[in-house]
Amino acid sequence: MQSYRRGAFAFDTGLHYVGGLGEGQSLHDAFERLGLLRLPWVRLDRDGFDHVTIAGRTFKIAEGYDNFVETLARDFPSEREALVRYVDMMRKSERRDAATTQQLVATNAWQWLSTNFSDELLANVVSGAAMKLELRKETLPLFTFLHCNSSYIQSAWRLKGDGNMIVASLVNDIRRFGGQIVCNAEVTELVEHDGRIVEAVCKDGRRYAGETFISDVHPSLTCSWVRESIKIKKIYRRRMSELQNTTGMFTVSLVLKPHTLRYFNHNDYVYRNADVWDFYRKKGPVGGVMVSCRVPDDGGEWAQQVDILTPMTWEEVEPWSNSTVGRRPEGYRAMKQRRADECIELAETVLPGLRNAVERMYTSTPLTYRDYTLTPDGSAFGVRKDCNNPLMTQLSAHTPVPNLLLTGQSLVLHGLQGVTMTAMETAKECL
Fold it and tell me: Whole-model pTM?
């Protein structure tokens, strides 16, 4: 959720748009309860909140399940029935009954899509707006794929402002209810006594006692903090330590010269080729980007900020993994500049003249996210879910220690919708 500032501008790190905020939709009730609907949300274009461009041809992802089908059926008339089946599967996934969830978690997303759609280009198109999850043909469960796409088709929104508006709203409410937010207190140990966690010990020596402890930090790191335990067995520790992580992201945050680019009320996903599912694992120039435009602060027609994102594997930054923020070597900075140039070049295929509109540029890699969030491998979406082994990768809020609970993106679902629903489940366990 958090953003960072450079001069007069705030830049988002992960939040770019949200789905399902309409009444009766997937996030509405939770956001209403949390007081987040009062924030200035702007609804994206209903007839094309996402534009997917593959090899120079652009397709629109429309809001509303029926509208979604009708819009894509104009480009793929022979696939209308397959699009209806796809939408029906989305609706089925939202019911969240145990049997359906179990079936979808154990179904390979790519295999289902490539079987349902006879035209592989359409399978790429419906996946093209999915840079908000890791597309991986071998492992991605259909359940994860459907949930990360369906809420946006219900309705898509972006904030007029940065993600810290959400943070500030939640923090203010926590304090209003008597809660306390403690920053700059790095936890190094969770002390167990008689089978329960009794206190958290910080790097500077501070100790915080409590009845219940909830961690949204990566499960393997949380587990490592419990150094001595009669509850956590070696097999559980090994399971947590062997969890694979999803890929990270490379982000290019641009400040634009005044009156050079008009605001566009949609997101652009741009791919060189019809290889949406594996372009990021191939060598060569950046093969796909997401382009997101910040709502102008002044309410005018001219854009002030644009973000460009592309997946980046840990292997690409591993040579500099021993460095820290502000102390990276020249080779790392040269790599970032090269990648940023490739991202802008690809974005210019749908936004001609973008490069000349840039006034300032800031970049971040999985190393940046690792150092700021303690996320192993700088993972953007937490633990990699595996349809071939769902019991090992679909984690619950419970740990072997009864008063130590988990929450966050590495459990059932990631993303804003995922962590909100997971937080509700964790809170339910407490209550």
Answer: 0.95
